[in-house]
C-alpha cells in the first residue's frame, strides 16, 4: 500500500475516533440536567394579564353539580387547630418552608430555590404529578407562582401575578394593607386554579377582593375570574366544582360552590364565621373557622 494513502487512512481513523469521543462527551454533558435555580435564571416569568376585578364568569352550560347539605357544627377551642386535623385524619398538601423568624427549618425537597432575585419562597404545595411554589417580598405578599414536575427536577411554568395584586381603587389610608397576595393553588387538566386576596376589610378596596381565577397553562390566558368576595380560605376541587369560602370580621360569611368550568356560583351557604380551611374527606366537606367546626355532606 502506498505510504501516503496509509498515512491518510490512519489520520482519518484517528480523526473519526476523536470526533466520536467528542460527541459522546458532549452528549454526556447535555444529559446533566440544570438545577431549578439555573432554570429560573434562564427564563423570565410570564406576566399574567390583568383580571377583571368585577369578575369574569362564563355562561353556564347546564351541568349537574354536587350540592352541599349541612350536617353539623360545633364549637372548637380556637387553639386546637392541629387536633382538628388529627382527629379528622386529614392534612393539607403543603411543604413547610424555612422561616428564620419563627425558627422553622422547613422540609422543602432538595434543590428548590429559596429565593428568586429579591423574593423569598413563601409556600410549597405537593401533588402527585406536579408541585407549586410561591415567591414574594415576604410571607404575606406573594406574587410569583413556580410549577415544577412531580420530582421537582423540571421547571414547567413560572408566572408573575403582579397585575392581580392591587384592586383599581383603594380607600385612602389603607394602602399598606390591600396587597392581594396569592393564597392557594391547584392544577387540573392543564388549568391553574389560583386564589388572591388581602387580609383586611373588603371596604378598603371597595369590595374588590378575594378571587379565584382559572388560568390556561397552554397560553397563560385567564379563562375566568370569580365574583369578588368569593374565596379567602383554602379551596378544594370536587368533580365539576370548586368549594371555597369567604368571610371577615363584621362582614357576612359564606361557603360557595363554584362551577369550575365557568367560575359561576352554583350554591351559596351562610355560615356564622369566615372559613379558614375547606377540605374534602370522602363525601364530606370539613370546614374550620375561627371558633366553629362545620361538616357538610356532598349530595
Structural class: mainly beta
Separation, N- and C-terminal Cα atoms = 90 Å
Query: What proportion strand?
Result: 35-45%
Mean pLDDT: 91
Please trace the helix and strand order, writing H or E for each element: HHEEHEEEEEEEEEEEEEEEEE
Shape: globular
- The helix tally amounts to 3
Q: Total strand count, please? A: 19
Helix amount, in percent? 10-25%
The poorly predicted ranges are: none
Give a quick account of the main beta sheet: strands, pairing sense, barrel closure. Answer: 7 strands, mixed
Account of the 3D structure:
This protein has 299 residues and is mainly beta. Strands 1, 3, 4, 5, 6, 7 and 8 form a seven-stranded mixed β-sheet that branches. The termini are far apart.
Topology (SSEs and partners):
Blueprint: H1 3-30, H2 36-42, E1 46-47, E2 68-75, H3 81-88, E3 94-95, E4 115-116, E5 119-126, E6 130-138, E7 141-149, E8 155-160, E9 181-188, E10 191-197, E11 211-216, E12 222-225, E13 236-238, E14 241-246, E15 253-259, E16 265-271, E17 275-281, E18 284-289, E19 292-298
Parallel strand pairs: 1-8
Antiparallel strand pairs: 2-19, 3-5, 4-5, 5-6, 6-7, 7-8, 9-10, 10-11, 11-12, 13-14, 14-15, 15-16, 17-18, 18-19
Descriptive keywords:
single chain, 299 residues, mainly beta, 19 strands
Structure described in brief:
The chain contains 3 helices and 19 strands. By secondary structure, it is mainly beta.
Amino acid at each position: 500500500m502506498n505510504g501516503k494513502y496509509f498515512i491518510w487512512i490512519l489520520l482519518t481513523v484517528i480523526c473519526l475516533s476523536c470526533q466520536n469521543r467528542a460527541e459522546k462527551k458532549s452528549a454526556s454533558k447535555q444529559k446533566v440536567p440544570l438545577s431549578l435555580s439555573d432554570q429560573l435564571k434562564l427564563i423570565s416569568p410570564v406576566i399574567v394579564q390583568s383580571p377583571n376585578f368585577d369578575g369574569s364568569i362564563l355562561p353556564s352550560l347546564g351541568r349537574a353539580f354536587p350540592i352541599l347539605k349541612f350536617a353539623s357544627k360545633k364549637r372548637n377551642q380556637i387553639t386546637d387547630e392541629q387536633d382538628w386535623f388529627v382527629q379528622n385524619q386529614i392534612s393539607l398538601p403543603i411543604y413547610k418552608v424555612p422561616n428564620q423568624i419563627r425558627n422553622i427549618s422547613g422540609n422543602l425537597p432538595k434543590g428548590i430555590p429559596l429565593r428568586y432575585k429579591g423574593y423569598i419562597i413563601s409556600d410549597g404545595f405537593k401533588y402527585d404529578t406536579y408541585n407549586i411554589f410561591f415567591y414574594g417580598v415576604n410571607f404575606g405578599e406573594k406574587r410569583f407562582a413556580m410549577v415544577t414536575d412531580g420530582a421537582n427536577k423540571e421547571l414547567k411554568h413560572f408566572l408573575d401575578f403582579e397585575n392581580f395584586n392591587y384592586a383599581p381603587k383603594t380607600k385612602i389610608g389603607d394602602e399598606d394593607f390591600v396587597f392581594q397576595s396569592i393564597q392557594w393553588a391547584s392544577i387540573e387538566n392543564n388549568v391553574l386554579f389560583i386564589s388572591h386576596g388581602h387580609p383586611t376589610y373588603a371596604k378598603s378596596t371597595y369590595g374588590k377582593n378575594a378571587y379565584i381565577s382559572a388560568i390556561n397553562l397552554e397560553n397563560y390566558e385567564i379563562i375566568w375570574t370569580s365574583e369578588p368576595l368569593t374565596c379567602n380560605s383554602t379551596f378544594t376541587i370536587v368533580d365539576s366544582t370548586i368549594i371555597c369560602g369567604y368571610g371577615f370580621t363584621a362582614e357576612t360569611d359564606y361557603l360557595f360552590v363554584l362551577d369550575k368550568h365557568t367560575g359561576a356560583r352554583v350554591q351559596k351557604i351562610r355560615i356564622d364565621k369566615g372559613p379558614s380551611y375547606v377540605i374534602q374527606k370522602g363525601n364530606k366537606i370539613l370546614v374550620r373557622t375561627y371558633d366553629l367546626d362545620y361538616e357538610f355532606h356532598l349530595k
